[in-house]
Amino acid sequence: MNSLPAQELKRRGIAAVDDLIANGDVHVIRNNQPQYVVLSEARYQELVAEANEAYVARVRMALEDVKNGRVTRFTTADDLLQAIDAEEPV
């Protein structure tokens, strides 16, 4: 994990990030805790694409469940909440 103290970022500016970003994401440490992550544009686009793919996959699975009758419909939110409360923990 690439890490960079916030003080170093403040002192050197973006040049401090430039030195580390080639080796991967940069975690900015503030008060001894990771506070921020700096990503390259390519890495950011990769994460966005992965999130979008996961979203589409979840929607497709939900539509398949509806199509195959693997859903339960509730007439009110209270009915749904009661059904959730009645379920056994997984």
> What is the SS-derived class?
alpha+beta
Instruction: Kindly report how far apart the N and C termini lie.
Output: 34 Å
Main sheet properties: 3 strands, mixed
Q: How much β-strand is present in the residues?
A: 15-25%
Mean pLDDT: 94
Tell me the total number of β-strands: 3
Oligomerization category of the chains in this entry? single chain
Keywords summarizing the entry:
single chain, 90 residues, alpha+beta, three-stranded mixed sheet, 4 helices, 58% helix, 17% strand, elongated
Brief digest:
The chain is an alpha+beta fold and 90 residues long.
Description:
The protein has helices spanning 6-12, 14-21, 41-67, 77-86, and strands spanning 2-5, 26-30, 33-38. It is α+β, with helices and mostly antiparallel strands and 90 residues long. It has a 3-stranded mixed sheet with strand order 1-2-3. The longest helix has 27 residues, at 41-67. The model has no long low-confidence stretch (mean pLDDT 94).
